[in-house]
Amino acid sequence: MQRILITGAASGLGKGLAETWAKRLGKQAKICIADVNDERGQEVVSQLQGQVADVLYVHCDITSESDISELANILQTRWGGVDTVVNNAGVATGGSLLGESIEQWQWVMDINVLGMVRVSQRFLPMFRKQGSGRFINIASQAGITPVPCMGSYNAAKAAVVGLSETWYLEFKPQNIDVHVVCPSFFKTNLDESMRTSEPTARMMMDRMFDKATMTTEQVAAYILDAVEKQQFLIVTHPEGRLAYRLKKFLSRPRYLATMAKKTGGMVKRMLAEHQERKGE
């Protein structure tokens, strides 16, 4: 029996993972949908009822330690523990350095980085007591091959990658696995949570979502296949894997020059927009 907790599972990739696990494991799965959107969360529970051994929704804001503690207590009481924690809940931000306020930086870091830390700190003792467990941390392609005008988001997702590598080394002797997932854009609702004060950043993000080549279901299936193969770094998109290889194997000056050429037009538009707004 697999006992699975997914944060941010009321929609998007979290929902896709829940649905894919339900199809693959059936009655061998127990799935907890944790989210702040109660209506959507209950809809996912209704959809999965009957497919898996047990499914429940728990309201959980990952910026609230009391919410996370209550979530852990519920699952300990109902299931006797958890086998897999998917740190999926997250938000999106965009903008140039001068276009992103400190408040925006604090918002994305509190959810995308510290939220993952809070959840992991609460469930690690449970894993240790059980003698096993698995964290699957959802980062982003932005965490390994960043582009301009997404500074806070890039930094938050790079932190998720760095923490995941740290925890892999830290938890391995305790029989606790860690995986980190770096998807590119796919057809999801992440843009609903996006914060930006710059129309060019919003336009860029919307264009990338519109051009997405993979569906949520395809991304979820790729992730579960890679987890089964015990891959640590999971880069879901072919173009993302190519970009990561280029970064690894090209010299740093050549890689940066290539990226600067590709993204220069976007940076110029963002700068012009900022100057117009400030009357410079």
UniProtKB/TrEMBL annotation:
Keywords: Oxidoreductase. Gene3D superfamilies: NAD(P)-binding Rossmann-like Domain (3.40.50.720). InterPro entries: NAD(P)-bd_dom_sf, SDR_fam. It comes from the Bacteria. Pfam families: adh_short (PF00106). Belongs to the short-chain dehydrogenases/reductases (SDR) family. This is SDR family oxidoreductase. It comes from Pseudobowmanella zhangzhouensis.
